[in-house]
Amino acid sequence: MLGIAFLFALIAFAGADSPPAAAQWTPTDVAVGDPSVSYANIEFTSDGRYAVWFEQTTNGTGVGSVWHCAVEPDTAEFTPPDCRGFQAFTTTIWGRGNPGIDAGGPYYVGMNLAGNLLLIRPTSATTGSVSVLAAPADLTRRSIYPTDLPGQQAGYVYWIKNEQTHGPPLNPANSWFELRYLDLANPATEIVIVRQDRPAQGFAPMDVGFARWYRGKATLTYGCADAAAYVQVCEYDAVQANPAPAQVTSDPHDHVDPFPWFLGSDDILVPGLDGTAESCVYKRPAGALQFTCAESITPPNSALTDPALAQSHERAIWAGRGYTAYQVNDAGSTFFQTAFAQPGEIWLSTVLQSPQQQWRVSGDGVLGRAEPETYVGNSRVWVFYSSLPEGAGLLTGTWSLRRADTPLENCWSSVPSATDGDCDGVTNSDEVACAGNTLSENLRPERLDGPFAGAGDDGDLEVDEALPAGVAGYDCDGDGYPGTAEDSVFGVAARADQRACGLEGWPSDFISSGIPNSTNKITITDLTSFLAPVRRLDTSPGGAGFSARSDLVPGRGLFIEWINISDLTALLAGPSGFPPMLGGARAFNGPACS
């Protein structure tokens, strides 16, 4: 009789831990814009329509202009091509504009050379409206960022205030720094969140754990020191009646430049750790206070001599899964030398996916590489970043703007796929037979599960109707199993060939929740369900333990018993092991279905 040892041998033989083909991806990294222009700190509005950036002069003053331009979501090309569309205002690198969004659309906020806070709403690629906020003029502001709240009529803007002088956080003329914000509905009133003293060496905690808003939430994270002098992450909710900071990490690390976001129902926080090349994905359930480290990220096979200072994480959500782009640089003697003047690399990593995958998206060559920004287009994801030639000065060199491809793209981003022309998770041949549409990802064979229930999915006027006659031999829902197998496993009345996901629709999925979490995923617990708590393996109809639910390849085939090795192998290999609905990814220890 087959037992647990054989089960693990089967997994090993099937290569269950080998990375998918994306790991072999080759980067394409090109310069964009005008090579004579110095592009610093490009940002994108969260609706993907505009790029906002700072054109820095090369005279060492840090003075320059804030511009916006339009971005084409299919190609990530700029309009106009050099992205000098609308010149909004003149400022310094410390007062440059950063984007937000509210119910009125995208905007960006920065500070002019007179110390006034400005709000600019793009009206086209080359036009915009400029408003002066009612807050008092104050040249000691820096690092100005608005909220991303598309469902609200207004939002908030935070900044760091130096005690005495404008400029970087290491100026000894400033003995303290304050984190402040205002409500755009009442911009004349400034609210102080916290004041921190400048330490004898290095940055104040709010500059180590650089402040950021959650996207879609008026909650701010920033660095704060604990009793042991570690830079932890604190959080401030601006919409509470009496908001007060709360410490949300507590492990013995300095948390560098944490980036807060949401992934499904979890809150995510991704900082670099201790100035090293390691980052950590911290996670907490919605409504909880404390984050815990759930995954470590360190660049594999870095070509740098001494990779350090993982930072500038930027999230991307693609096909419902999380990714983060970040930079590492060769260790230098100071933060600014390491982050901006040393050779660097830009990496993209999966977030909370198994197995973890990472790709170096920046090209070869000795360049200072910094400030990665993800851009999620219609059919793929790009990473933009700024680069500086070796030996060039931070304020005197010309920063070039580069755009790197990533492996995150639809199968039809360049040419239609030969197997799934519209990338909807159903192969062309199955979709034609099952009354779908091979040229539209929004039209597919009728489904009954999840968001498809109660909707017309195939483009006709009917809702949740049965599949056409004679298609039982096709995989109409993309889960890797033909309708004949699903009818045998679940029963004809279940119409499981119209349910791709879940315990009642995906034959491979036996277990929900558990450790590891097997909800809508295939894990070791789905395999071991053939052995316990009731042994299904090596059984046949009429015998103890037999269940048609486990007879994934119906009948005995070449074996004595009906439930045999071929049923186990269905979870690991063939079309059911790499189902179309997962884009051809391995189901075992792979992504969740949807």
Keyword list:
594 residues, mainly beta, 5-stranded antiparallel beta sheet, 4-stranded antiparallel beta sheet, 8 helices, 29 strands, 8% helix, 34% strand
Helices and strands in order, then pairings?
Elements: H1 4-13, E1 29-32, E2 39-44, E3 50-56, E4 63-71, E5 78-79, E6 86-92, E7 98-102, E8 105-111, E9 117-122, E10 128-132, E11 141-146, E12 156-162, E13 176-183, E14 186-197, H2 205-208, E15 212-213, E16 219-225, E17 231-237, E18 246-247, E19 255-263, E20 266-273, E21 279-285, E22 292-297, E23 307-318, E24 321-330, H3 335-341, E25 344-351, E26 358-360, E27 367-376, E28 380-389, E29 400-409, H4 428-433, H5 483-490, H6 524-528, H7 565-569, H8 574-577
Antiparallel strand pairs: 1-29, 2-3, 3-4, 4-5, 4-6, 7-8, 8-9, 9-10, 11-12, 12-13, 13-14, 15-16, 16-17, 17-18, 19-20, 20-21, 21-22, 23-24, 24-25, 25-26, 27-28, 28-29
Structure report:
With about 600 residues, this protein is mainly β. The protein has a domain at about 415-594. Helices cover about 10% and strands about 35% of the residues. It has eight helices and 29 strands. It has helices spanning about 5-15, 205-210, 335-340, 430-435, 485-490, 525-530, 565-570, 575, and strands at about 30, 40-45, 50-55, 65-70, 80, 85-90, 100, 105-110, 115-120, 130, 140-145, 155-160, 175-185, 185-195, 210-215, 220-225, 230-235, 245, 255-265, 265-275, 280-285, 290-295, 305-320, 320-330, 345-350, 360, 365-375, 380-390, 400-410. Strands 2, 3, 4, 5 and 6 form a five-stranded antiparallel beta sheet that branches. It has a four-stranded antiparallel beta sheet with strand order 1-29-28-27. It is elongated and about 85 Å long.
